[in-house]
Amino acid sequence: MDRNAPIGVFDSGVGGLTVAREIIRQMPDEKIVYFGDTARVPYGSKSRDTVIRYSRQIIRFLLTKQVKAIVIACNTASAYALDTVEKEFDLPIIGVIRAGALTAVHATHNGKIGVIGTEGTVGSGIYTEVIEKMNPNVQVTAKACPLFVPLVEEGLLHDSVTDEIASRYLSELKGKFIDTLVLGCTHYPLLRSTVGRVMGSDVTLVNPAYETAVELKALLEERGLNCEPGQAADSEKYRFYVSDLAEKFTAFATSILPRQVKETLKIDIERY
To answer: What are the catalytic residues?
Structure first.
């Protein structure tokens, strides 16, 4: 495996950019190939079989870019597809669930953890399962927040509509007296200020995007796959692909990432 090859990152849309952003911040020498499945977003309402099929297609596409590792920067795909694709493809593949779950277990003081995510992630029970394996004494309350993804995709990060929907979704969790809340969808860190305001300062918010980048960095170093410094010019470091709406993605990515995204290429993902 070429240690100077890029890292593949994929998500159902723009949410995985929160993971890409953390990789850029923590591993500035690494190259990234990002794919956002903007034609088929959201994944949260799709069946397990469909999400696995989509994930296989995207991984096959990323392999054409000679990636050395893949981050499934989508909680739904991590829940539904990670175990399957890990066995089918011969390169390191990690999801975004384990790292966030571990951080939540370490952060809680009263043993009451909340998880918000898509219908797919919450319905899978994956966070509850992983957290309870780490600490059987923890009580997990999960809440699906299906409208958060389209709100983020539409750029309504600071809007009265978003505030109202967040208040409705999160009122149930407030009644459970949780002290730690996992933002269990990679879109949700973009609503962090809203969620934090609704939940209050006594609740610790866990951002799995940050924790996943930490896990990835350790994995690459352990396997000797971390990139050597100065291997790529800045203009060649980060490449972005989508299945639809390339211009809209470019504008959004530029607002999220620490550098301007000059070009996003649209591809026919069904070919893979």
So the answer is: 74, 185
